[in-house]
Amino acid sequence: MRLKGLKCLITGGSSGIGKATAERFVAEGAEVLIADIDIEAANRVAEALGEPAWALKCDVRLEHDVEEIASLAHDRWGKVDVLVNNAGSELNRPYDETSVEEWDRVLDTDLKGPWLMCKHFVPRMVEAGSGSVINVSSLNGLVGFPLSTAYGSAKGGLVVFTRDMAIELASTGVRINCVCPGVIDTGMMERWTDLMPDKEEAKTMLRGTMPIGRMGKAEEVAGAIYFFASLDSSLCQGAVLSVDGGFTAQ
Ligand SMILES: NC(=O)c1ccc[n+]([C@@H]2O[C@H](COP(=O)([O-])OP(=O)(O)OC[C@H]3O[C@@H](n4cnc5c(N)ncnc54)[C@H](O)[C@@H]3O)[C@@H](O)[C@H]2O)c1
């Protein structure tokens, strides 16, 4: 119960890593707000989690959505202690076949979204003198891959954004850190393998890229996010934690 009494907001909390994080946070005693573009799914998750959880519709690309949930969250809770910037959108496309709309969708969701969330939530944490922000980047933000320019640029940008914010916030009591998951078995991975000619072959290939020989589970990433949310990580500021079964250790 290391998060007992904490008010925690998770973007993209209706599936995959975000959902597993919401479940872990509630199990650790937190109250959780799931902010997701898919409000039906978010409501289902909140209902299953019971009284400590609630959900709001939010497209993290849109400043007025973010402003609105900031106002609703602060009206209901008075404060937000933990912000998890997890909502993400992927693209597997050669750089010269990527449309401006696709580029903007990925960069706006994966990089502008976390900045907008910080812009409208972190000042209140600074006023309170405490808070923890966790950004969900990717191993695509650390190493190069084919067909990954938009997604990799957004996730690499998020790593640097985390470090810059960490310095800006260093003396405020607000911490900001980042996790970089490897190949994790979620809806995003299903969508990616759906695009391959042979889905099972693609999954076997993906498992083979992980030195541990298997895909990660959403709950394993949630454990790393929980570490940064809890005071066990009180000295971490601007840390970038690979949660990738050894991928970036190669
Ligand atoms: N699955 C992986 O292998 C993997 C690896 C590295 C990083 N990640 C990152 O982890 C995070 C979670 O991904 P996941 O694998 O759980 O995928 P997922 O598709 O299961 O979850 C993504 C969530 O984000 C929400 N979302 C999408 N666009 C949004 C928007 N504009 N505003 C608000 N919510 C929005 C979706 O509705 C969904 O609930 C993402 O940032 C992703 O890039 C995933």
Characterise the protein shown here.
There is one protein chain. Helix 5 links the parallel strand 5 (131-136) and strand 6. The protein is built from eight helices and seven strands; from the N terminus they run E-H-E-H-E-H-E-H-E-H-E-H-H-H-E. It has 250 residues and is an alpha/beta fold. Helix 1 crosses helix 8 and helix 4 (100-128) packs parallel to helix 5. 45% of the residues are buried. The chain folds into two domains: 7-181 and 217-234, Rossmann fold, CATH 3.40.50.720; 185-215, no CATH class. It has a seven-stranded parallel beta sheet, with helices on both faces. It starts with 6 loop residues before the first strand and ends in a 7-residue tail after the last strand. The site of nicotinamide-adenine-dinucleotide has 28 residues, from helix 1 and helix 6.
Question: How is the secondary structure organized here?
Answer:
Layout: E1 7-11, H1 16-27, E2 31-36, H2 39-49, E3 53-57, H3 63-77, E4 82-85, H4 100-128, E5 131-136, H5 149-169, E6 174-181, H6 187-194, H7 199-209, H8 218-229, E7 240-243
Helix pairs in contact: 1-8, 3-4, 4-5
Bound molecules: nicotinamide-adenine-dinucleotide (NAD).
Assign the CATH topology of the largest domain: Rossmann fold
Instruction: Count the domains.
Output: 2
By DSSP (H or I, 4+ residues per run), the number of helices equals: 8
Work out the helicity level.
40-55%
Strand content: 15-25%
List the strand order in the largest sheet: 3-2-1-4-5-6-7
**How does CATH name the architecture of the largest domain?**
3-Layer(aba) Sandwich
| Bound heterogens, unique | nicotinamide-adenine-dinucleotide
Structural class by sheet pairing and helices: alpha/beta
Radius of gyration in whole Å, from Cα? 17 Å
SSE order = EHEHEHEHEHEHHHE
Model regions low in confidence, pLDDT < 50 over at least 5 residues: none
Q: Could you say which overall geometry the principal axes of the C-alpha atoms support?
A: globular
> CATH superfamily membership of the largest domain, which one?
NAD(P)-binding Rossmann-like Domain
For the secondary structure, the number of strands is 7
